Structure formats: C-alpha cells, structure tokens
Amino acid sequence: MTAATPAHPSKLALERYLLDELSDIDRASLVGHAAACASCGQRLTELRADNERFAQDDELPEKLDQLAAALDDRAPSAVGARPPLHRRPWFGAAVTGAGLALAAALAISLWPAPPKAPDFAAILDDGRATSRPAVLLEVIGRAPDGAPRWLAPGDAVHPGDALRFRVRSPVAGYLAVLGLDPAQKVRVHAPAAPALRPIAAGQPVLVDDSIVLDATLGAALLVAIVCPTPRTAAEVEAAARRALLAAGGSPRAVERITGPAALGNCHEAMLLVDKVAP
Amino acid sequence: MDRAALQQLYVRYGPMVLRRARALLRQEQAAQDALQEVVLRAVRALGDSPELARAFESGAPEGSDSAATWLYRTTTSYCLNALRERAQLSGVLASIPHELIELAHYYLIDALTQDEIAALLGVPRATVGDRLDELRATARTLAPLSGAS
Description:
The structure holds two protein chains of two kinds.
Chain A: H1 11-18, H2 24-36, H3 38-55, H4 60-74, H5 89-95, H6 97-105, E1 136-142, E2 149-150, E3 156-157, E4 162-168, E5 173-180, E6 186-190, E7 197-199, E8 205-206, E9 211-212, E10 218-227, H7 233-246, E11 267-275
Parallel strand pairs in A: 3-11
Antiparallel strand pairs in A: 1-2, 1-4, 4-8, 4-9, 5-6, 5-7, 5-10, 10-11
Helix pairs in contact in A: 2-3, 5-6
Chain B: H1 3-25, H2 28-48, H3 50-58, H4 67-85, H5 98-109, H6 114-121, H7 125-148
C-alpha cells in the first residue's frame, strides 16, 4: 500500500483551493508548491479553463431547467424556503450604489498583446519560483453577470469586469497596488490616500476598493508592492513609471519595479492579465 | 431554491462534481447524470441540514463541514454505487464493504492524506488509521483468492 505523496497537493486540495476553501496556511503552501511544480501549475491552469468552459456551456440553461423540474418533482419541501446562497459581498458593494461610483472612478485602461503563458511563479515575489515566503498577489475577477473567479497569470478579462485584490506579505510593511498599461499609464489602485497603507505580516488583506475595466483591450500588469518603511503613493507610482519606460512602454516587458534604483528594500508581486472583447 | 441560487450552486460546484464523476465513471453521459443527481442531493440536503447550509453559504469552512468535501464525498459514493450496479466492480471486490472501497479509492487512487480523508468522512484521524488497517487485512484475505482466479 502506498502512502499519499506529500509533495503534491491532492485532487481534493486543488479543488478546494479553486473554491477558496483552504485555510490561509494550506493555501499559501499550495500556491508555493504550484509555483515550483510545473505539473501542478499546469493542472491548476487546466482546472480553471475547465471551470470556464463549464460556466460558458451553451446547454447550461437547459440543464438548469431540467434540474429545476426535477426539484419540483422530487423535493418540494426542500426548495423555496432556503435563503439565497452566499454571494461574495464585496462584489455587491462594488457594482451597486456608492460602490459602483467608486469603481467607475477607479476604472483603468487595459491593452493589446498576447498574454504570457500561465505561470504560477509569476504571482510570487520577483516573478521567480521560490520556496521562501513571498508577497502574494491574488486577483479576483467578476463579469457583471458572472461569478467571481480567481485570476491566473495570462487569464482573459473583459471590459466591464470588476477586479479586486488580495495581498499577503510575509513581513509587516506598507502596501500599494497599481496597474501598468501599454499607453505608458500607471495607476495606483490602492491606497486612495497619499501614504501607503500598513499591512500586517502573514495576514491576507482584501483591498477595499474594486476597479472596473474600461473598453480598451490588451495586456495589463497588476502589481502589489510592500515596503518595510513608510512610503508615499507618489514614490511608488514614479518607480513604476520608470520601470515601464525602461521596458519600452510594454507592461509585458516589465520584469520588476523595485530594485537598486528605487524602492530597493521593497518586495513586489505581479500578475499579467489580458483584456479581450467578450 | 430560486433559479439564481440554483445556477450559482451549479456553476460554482458543478465543475468539480463533473470532473470527479468523469474520473470515476469514464462515461460522459453517466457523469452528466451523476452531476445532476449530486446537485439534486445537495439541494435536498441544504433543506435538511442547517450545518451544510451554513457550509454552502459561508463559502470557506474547514474540514468535514466544507461544501466541497461534502460534494466530493457524495459524488464519490454515488459513482462507486453506480459502478457496482454496472458490475464493473465484480468478483472479489464485490464482497468488500462499500465504505472500504470508498476509503481505498481516497487513499490509493486519489492519494489523499489521512487528515484529508478524516475531514472528508467526518471522522477522527485515528478512525481513518483503523479503517486502513481493516482495508489492509481485507486485502491480505483477498489476495490469495485473487491470485487463484
């Protein structure tokens, strides 16, 4: 009898990761493993693609009709009285009322070019696979009429989609989240205030505000930067502009923002997404 | 459950259920049937179990209260029963209790850890160890029969 292979997460663990059901510790462990393990990283990419296909199935309405009919026939006492299933509250806040106005105000431009191949190493500090603790940037995307989903590097997003950011840092510091576009624009999505917001070590921070994507198509680089000492949003924005300029204005060519020239003691995590027409 | 809630449940958990069913049943239509049946069971169970309803509503519970683990186990159990009915588990395997077949699948094929199996089955880890001992004993008993056939 063979024991479970500890090095690879189980099928169930991968499924629970995609459903955001893992504890913070297990989630960090799985992400770290996937960044270093090509087969697991590829498997996660395949699972996400499979989820997308499932949600876009042309026969989905018909299948739901069949389910609804079966429920009417078979379990009348179990339906109708239940409250609606959980909806992630932040999206409701982001796309309605004041949240919508805020999201619109934060709307960013996104741009053309093929995405990088999905690579979970890209979401770790410096874009390299590493076993050491690293800043982790996770981005949740949601179409106006769709379900929230975790975005992987290279994932497609669409105009009107809302994005929200979750960041985890191994060290306490000060956090900024920003986006870079091929029109050489840099936008600081968080904080809204001039000074970077504090972030505690090991505690995932869900950035309060969401952004809504406009109609411009192409690749976008989303970046989380954590600095051990207080910094201003203007400093981070300036460093990002320099990095984008050095990369010829292409977000895809930006390898890092922090370095000897600026923000030398800061850490960063990047995620490149591709905005395409629906 | 209104249609929007049903769709939300179906789209969120359906891919996992369908993948699991496809892996076990190896027949697309049978897997689609399993998906529908498991979703129906989930909706019924939501009406019967406040704990499970909370698991689905909170989205990220731990251990055996997790919606994903409940669905994973329910799908596994349904599919293994379907395989039995299709006589694909035949011969000496037919004499093994369903619970041990399920455990063997989790441990040997899915490569789940004992902790994961304990959470999946909602039992202490020590119980998983005891059942694995039982599985080993059963396998030893059956090995000569299998070799002779």
